[in-house]
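Below is how a single chain appears once it has passed through the pipeline. First comes the sequence as given, then the structure the pipeline wrote out for it. We keep one example in the README because the format questions we get most often are answered faster by looking than by reading.
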Amino acid sequence: MNIIQYVYTCGDKLFSELPFNEVDSLIFAELAYINFNLSTKDTEFVKIKDLKIDDTKAFYHGSVDAKNNEKLLSAMIESRRYQDVKIGYCKSIKEEKKHIQFFAMTLIMPSREAYIAYRGTDTSLLGWKESITIAYEKKMPGQEMAVEYIRNASTLFKGKFYIGGHSKGGYLAMCAALFMGEKLEERLIKAYSFDGPGLKDNIEEFPSYKRIENKLEKYLTSHDIIGVVYNKLKNVKIVYSTGILLGGHDPFKWMVNRRDLTFQYTKDRSFASKRSEEAMMNWLTKEKDEDKRLAVDVLFDMFGESKTIYDLLLNASRLIVNGRKKIKQYSQRQKDEAKEIFRRLGRYYLDSYSPKRFLTNRKKSLDNKEK
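Resulting structure:
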């Protein structure tokens, strides 16, 4: 079953009967894709069952899977388990020049334990470009906002808390955990990254990592291509997803075991996932940061006036024609360099997926088994 079916299955069980677990954490992380800031004010907290949604379209706007998010929240509103969870202190920030698309919210459970949820990449091209900056920057633009948010939010409730997020939200959750400070580390129960990329730095060198290592939870999927980027955490859990490659990134395709109500796990990732990781990491580590920055800038400028990925898909021809006018600011040398950096990315993928290499690795595997 998926997370919506989990809510229906466990909806009559209070947290005192079925303790908060990893599936609940993914559900709370997914809620960060919904615009709760339209139904709450500043530091006001509202129970899920008391939410007033004036404009349904605006409330779910920007989510990659708005329909499933609506189904998920509707199920939670009707459940004994979630209806008394309070939501508040929703912060939504967009800064075009700094490439920032940031959203965070705080949930307080009846047990008074809190959960800080960070939003991942939404449908805006601004959000996509922010996420891609990890290719050439040491940190994403929203990292400092994530740390500032947890420090402010933690003053609004007493006691311990969880933090988590999906995709970019998982990255921000890890950043918040590593940089929040020792006093907050003592209150932290766990920090969850659901298929979020890792930090470019070697986190094992951070003093905070040694203090909270056992509180960091990282989840990948069987066909993962996102969370494997810069992944440096140990004891990563691999969840079975019915989606393939990018489709496996979708939390609604992550499978939950009906018997023990935890995720269905697999022992290893698929061949395609491993090859994709190798290709992407070769590109990220072997190419110069300034070359990758130029390539990304040219690519997004080619999209012209597109605001969302749906704008781009529906009006691709017109927008790209307009985008060509915008990239006139680049010299021919710069445009040629941008094309070449993406060609090399393609070559890394071709090399990783080459049939000859697959057969060689397969033969080695069989030879090892015979020994």
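The first helix runs from residue 3 to 10.

See the next section for the split statistics.
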